[in-house]
Write a structure and sequence with these properties.
The protein is an alpha/beta fold and about 290 residues long. Helices cover about 25% and strands about 20% of the residues. The chain contains nine helices and twelve strands. The strands form three sheets. An eight-stranded mixed β-sheet has the order 3-2-12-9-1-8-6-7, with helices on both faces. Helix 7 runs parallel beside helix 8. It is globular and about 50 Å long. Pfam families: Sulfatase.
Length: about 290
């Protein structure tokens, strides 16, 4: 029987997904939740490094040891995060509908499933706050810096938001500083309070030349320095995972918001319709709590 537009679909394994679809109605209210966007990370680079054993701390958590190929909801940070905070995480490749983890109440949604956490609010952050979560943003790129109205839109969704130049794109130790801050956030929460922590990792975004050994600004950013930035993130992400799972089990989503180009077909950068921009790595998994 053909499904009517105003019906919801039952939770089921997604044939295009490498990760099992959890029942988010059981996760929300029980587990802490971590959303990491590896800003600008390309799918092909992420897969190459995982296959070569160059990002062991991330790879050990990826379902099947590999990234899932997905399509970004936007071609640059602001657009993509507005969509993700409305519940539209990167979409599995292949024809859907694909059951979503989170969704706002919306008549006719064909991707709202039995296991989808549905919220009445206009965005996921407010929806989780209404469910009792402390919502915290650790910003990275300029859309989270609050240096003006536009840079305040996304962080203002959260109960608590952090940004400083040490967390931004020009800092060669940005992710270490973000992890240190995340550990302090977790340590300052009452044990019974659930946490939704969002971290926008700025290290992959240009400039990233300084992550390559011996590189100078004159060398500029390349696909290789992009890869070196991901290796840098991997060296420190284990501390972040340990911090967010130190109180209880944590459901983690790690993905890119969009990719970027380094000369492919004459393009450099993003906010354009190229496969290197639209195709992103994605994973979700549980981090076990203390035993």
């Amino acid at each position: 029987m053909m499904q009517q537009p105003d019906e919801t679909i039952a939770t089921r394994p997604d044939s295009n997904s490498t990760a099992a679809q959890p029942d988010m109605t059981a996760v929300v209210g029980s587990d802490d939740i971590l959303l990491i966007t590896l800003d600008t990370l390309r799918y092909d680079v992420a897969c190459e490094l995982a296959a070569a054993g160059r990002i062991p701390n991330l790879a050990r958590h990826l379902p099947g040891g590999r990234w899932e190929e997905r399509h970004a909801p936007g071609s640059f940070t602001y657009a993509s995060h507005q969509a993700m905070f409305a519940g539209f995480l990167p979409t599995p490749v292949g024809q859907g509908p694909h059951p979503r983890l989170f969704a706002a109440e919306f008549g006719g949604s064909e991707s709202t499933a039995a296991g989808t956490f549905v919220f009445a609010e206009s965005n996921l952050v407010d929806g989780l706050a209404a469910a009792g979560y402390r919502t915290v943003c650790i910003g990275g790129v300029g859309f989270f810096n609050r240096r003006g109205a536009l840079g305040s839109v996304l962080p203002d969704l959260f109960d608590e938001a952090h940004w400083s130049p040490e967390l931004g794109v020009t800092s060669p130790t940005s992710f270490e500083a973000q992890v240190d801050l995340a550990a302090r956030v977790v340590g300052g929460l009452p044990a019974e309070r659930r946490l939704f922590l969002f971290v926008n990792v700025s290290a992959l975004h240009q400039p990233n030349w300084f992550f390559a050994e011996g590189a100078t600004a004159d060398h500029g950013d390349t696909r290789a320095t992009h890869a070196a930035a991901l290796e840098y993130v991997d060296r420190h992400i284990g501390r972040l995972f340990a911090a967010v799972s130190s109180r209880r089990r944590c459901f983690a989503i790690v993905c890119s918001d969009h990719g970027t180009t380094y000369g492919e077909d004459g393009y450099t950068g993003h906010r354009l319709g190229h496969p290197a921009v639209w195709t992103v790595p994605y994973a979700h998994f549980f981090l076990p709590g203390p035993r």
